[in-house]
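#onboarding

Welcome to the new folks! Below is a worked example of what a typical request in this channel looks like: someone posts a single protein sequence, and someone else replies with the predicted structure as tokens. Don't worry about understanding the tokens yet, we'll cover that in week two.

Example request:
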Amino acid sequence: MLLVTGHEYINIKSSYLASSTKNEMRHVILIVFIIGSFALKAQNDALEQAKKKFSGNDFAAAKNILNKLLEPTAKNKEAYVLRGRAKMALGDLYGAIGDFNFALDIDSTQADALNFRGEAKISLGDDEAAIADLDKAVKYNPNYSEAYTNRGFAKYNLEELQPAYFDFSKVIELGKPDADKYFNRGVIKAELGEFISAIDDYSKAIELNKADASLLNHRGVARYNTGNYKEAILDYNQAILIDPKDAVKYENRALAKSAIEDLKGALEDYNKAIELEIDPETLNLRGVLKNNLQDHDGAIADYTKAIELDGTVPTYFDNRALSKTEKGDFAGAAEDYSTSIELYASDSETYYQRGLVKLQLNNKYDACLDFKRADELGSKDAKTAIKKNCK
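Example response:
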């Protein structure tokens, strides 16, 4: 039997202790790994549950799930972005931006967070800051269609129409054809005065979504602006069949009918539009039509109602003055022209017309003052009136 020396015993004991410690550490690592796996699975399950709630438009429930997931120190950038989107849907734009900031603190190149933060800033009216975010979003994801769309909206809001056109064109290049993509670019083209090209985009949008009355209405407006009044009326007819409760479509059709001198049909459309929605501009337009139909009392009634709804528009006073002039109410006409001038003092035609009315009132001195002011503002008719009346 061999004896073990003290040193050997110590070495054996130390070896045993080392082996024991390693085994314990393996157990600890395994336990931590298992706990971490369970925690990660729980986070993923909660995130998927929140996604389902979000997809079902139950934004409050999605937000509540994500609140629990992110407490107290979780750093899940996807969860922050999703909670930010839920807050946006609930109208909490500043809270949404806060969550997108948290996501970007974790990963500054995350295109989704940049895109949605840009979208929130657009909703808050901060279009320039939105563009800065969206520039980064498309930098980190050059095929991010939604980011180009949002940047197009921001540029449109800033009246940067040509850059907006390029963004909406890029969106059309990316992904599948979509009615909204062509519609957005069509709107920009129309704003740029490119109505024929806008009609092409609206037509493509209509091919993709024949049930959208708004698309037909916009194409009708573009056709009206190219002088194709009958084609415009056909578009308005179809739009009204789909959506018979929209006053604007009847008003647009009335304008097109007036252009082809279907005044009776135009009056019917204005009547319908006003039945659906009492709008001062529609009342003004119907007043113009009634005046052309020699219904001066009806015209004056419409202008008066328009002024009651919005007394800040000089045109309404000008038009009522014209109808009063037709009826021989020169004093009333002069009063309306004076109010119009108080609202907008740089219209040569208003001074000229008031001058004519003052002549009818035998107030030649004041009439000549109006003609001279109209002449200063560039009225050729006023120059002729001065030579004739102001010697």
